[in-house]
Amino acid sequence: MRGIISAGGYVPYRRLDRSQVAATFGSGGGRGTRAVASYDEDTTTMGVEAARLALRGAAGARPEALWFATANPAYLEKTNATAIHAALRLGQSVPALDAGGAVRSGPGTLRAALDHTGVVLVVASDLRIGLPTSADESGGGDGAAAFVIGDESHGPMIAEYLGSASATEEFVDRWRLPGEPVAKQWEERFGETKYVPLGEQAWNDALKTAELTTEAVDHLVVTGVHPRAARSLSGRLGVDKEKVVDDLAGTVGNTGTAHPALLLISALESASPGDVIAVVALADGVDVLLLRATDAVTSYEPARAVADQVANGGELPYGKFLAWRQMVTIDPPRRPEPERISAAVAGRTDDWKYAFVGSRDRASGALHLPPARVSREGGAQDDMEPAPMSDVAGTIATFTVDRIAYSPSPPIVFAIVDFDDGGRLPVELTDVDADGVKMGDRVELTFRKLFTADGIHNYFWKARPIRA
Amino acid sequence: MGSHGIKDQVAIVGAGCTRFGEHWDKGPDDLLIESSNEALASAGVGKHDIDAFWLGTAMSGMSGMTVARPLQLENKPVTRVENFCATGSEALRGAAYAVASGAYDIAMAIGVEKVKDSGYQGLVGASKTPTDGTGRTLTAAAMFAMCAPAYGKKYGVDDAQMRDVLAHISWKNHYNGARNPRAQFRKEVTTEAICASPIMAGDLRVFDCSGVADGSAAVIVVRAEDASKYTDKPVYVKGLSFVAGNASGNADPDYDYTAFPEIEAAGRDAYAQAGVTDPRRELAMAEVHDCFTPAELLIMEDLGFAERGGAWKEVLAGTYDLRGDLPINPDGGLKSFGHPVGASGLRMLFEAWLQLRKEAPPERQIDTDRTLALTHNLGGYPGEMVSFVGIVGSEKD
What is the pLDDT of residues B36-45, one digit of tens each? Predict the structure, then answer.
């Protein structure tokens, strides 16, 4: 028996109130909010956050493969999963692969992992961009989801895999050329007439494979790149309305590649043992996955529940949203932009830069961030052990707001953080408002993109307030 | 082992300093020619009489040829040094030690910086050292901004009092600079205007930050016994100390941003070399590195000019004003004289040279019978800095 050992959903902190769109442009927007990736996040960093949460709940199961899916990759040509692999400190023998470009790569890799062998960490992440006033802008959402998938022998499963089915057909509904920021869409009705019959076919095939009836389904997730078709299909599958899982359209928005997985996690958070969960994902065809929550789901406490993250967002002015998505360019500080990083230097400091591993002096216990060879206490040389610190919380000793330094989104809020394990690092804060920081605030680490220069993303860690 | 110093072995016999400011019409070559000409003239020598040169510049040129080419030196050794904002003072150390060693009879320490050519606000480091991108990218203003609230919290100085203290420091340095024809900013500024200026970082306002200026300064040193050949009012080197910090403040949770240990250590060493036991009462004046007003506040305590936690009261009482008990930055300091990095340390020495020889303009000449002056630089940030402390005197022991 194969299934889900643990899960991690990541919803970024910022929310755009959709009513701001019409207030600015006179049209567009709508009701509710959408989740917005910060200026220092991309699909890779959000994938890291989701994967960290998933691994925290995975007990002893160590991934034997990492698969990363996104329709908005931070790099082409270069693999993005390797940065996630580095941030998680997975072993060198663990392959890290991208399934990139298409939204269907999200539900597709999830299904492939369930059909595969060994322990697979499957990560889906997306950052959904639309032109101002567009349906993609307001209806889209940013986020990521990760699962540790394996067999019973790898650890207790919170949900077992019952079966799946797919229906595939070539037709043009949504498309985007490489290099273009936003997608285009054919008129809605055409897609609907394609998706609904494909969905019914895959649904019936999946139930047959799993030897289940429609009545057996306790939680139904229907989502995809065509919201109207998803709604239409949802009403035709014969599942009671109250069993349909909230698609988070009113709070998070549609996170594209990540959304089927994010909604599955959301369903697992409220599932009882024995509940059957169906995931129906519409993207250039339809994929249906069937799972059953196990007894372990009752004792399963997610490292950070999706529901809690949804409830703990912070407002974002529409102007900043437009600037973060590079729909407008704001006046930069009169300071030099950063130089590109050196691949060679970063190659020597992987464990620090990507995984936040310091060093601890065996003799004095003094913690060094970044790692050092000579101890600042006692002066012992080369008597250090690695100190992984990315999951250690800290306290703001003091902080400052820099209004003149270069930042992709000024001002920089910067703090001296003392970690609970005795180390200190001057580090940038993120997901904060400059006037909302106090000495003594508790913070945690988060993997971010500091800047991009010469096309090279500079990934490192920042600190953010511990919320919920 | 020990730090023995070269007390009274070396004398300064000539000094020069350009006006500091926005020299849009002058390059580093022009500034070097100007300051060296003035220093040579004051010592009564020509450039070919100088045996060796030490050039301090952080970002305005590489190698000794930065001086040798514009001055058209012939087969002279020129050493280019860099040590953050203590770069100019580092040039002095090289020249003074070379003369004390007997290697050369007469040497010049010269510093220059052309910072206004970058096109950016504030200082822009020239270092292109490849990195892994994990270092911080804050401005110095933001780092020093952390000191004021930390100091206030530790010693019970509330925000309003702290604002008054910082404003007084800025006011005082502008008052002094207004009496200095070579200073970048020659206007007195009211404390009200200081407190109403735009915020740069933390609670620091524009008037809490030093001026960014182009400029050059130079001094000529000889062995003390030769000094009378050049001047009847030599200024003797009493002590030169330098500490390169190990950045432990970045890693050590015990560091609290209310003191600069590197400066305290450099001060201790310099006082020991010079035989100074009570700097507050023995020094005629001090030029300290007031890159930001909280820095000057903390430095008063690091250098022993006030008890720990007591400097803010002394500032408000006027102790460090031009007519106070221990004038600090009588030439206006970095705040209003401006801060061309490689020249600043030697600019401070230029003021000590004027004051100890009683040659400062009467409106800022210090009236004292004390004969010692201190110059100080820091370079870097709280928790990770270099520091220089020099002591010079008009009397030989």
Answer: 999 999 999 9
Question: Tell me: the pLDDT tens digits for A416-428?
Answer: 999 998 999 999 9
B116 with B67, same domain? yes
Distance CA B385, CA B382 (A): 7
Asked, for residue B1, whether it belongs to a domain, the answer is: no
Give whole-number Cα distances, A361 to A263, A374, A419, B245, in Å: 44, 8, 16, 20
| Residues paired with A122 in a beta bridge | A67, A147
Query: Which of A339, A404, A450 minimises the CB distance to B201?
Result: A404
Q: Which of A360, A390, A424 to probe by mutation at the B interface, max B CB count within 10 Å?
A: A424
A71-100 tens-digit pLDDT: 999 999 999 999 999 999 999 999 999 998
Tokens matching residue B159 = 């925000």
Give yes or no: residues A227 and A351 share one domain.
Answer: no
Q: Sorting pLDDT into bands at 50, 70 and 90, what band is B166?
A: very high
Say what the ipTM of the complex is.
0.89
User: Which residues in chain B are closer than 8 Å to A339, comparing Cβ atoms?
Assistant: 128, 131
What is the spatial distance between Cα A64 and Cα A60, in angstroms, rounded to a whole number? 12
Residue B257 has pLDDT above 80, yes or no: yes
Coil vs helix vs strand at B83: strand
Structure tokens at B105: 């009879």
Question: Do B383 and A418 lie within an 8 Å CB cutoff?
Answer: no
Domain extent, residue B26, equals 10-122+214-234
Tell the residue number behind the tokens 């006030």, with chain if given: B306
Measured at the CA of A385, the angle between CA A384 and CA A389, to 5 degrees, comes to 120
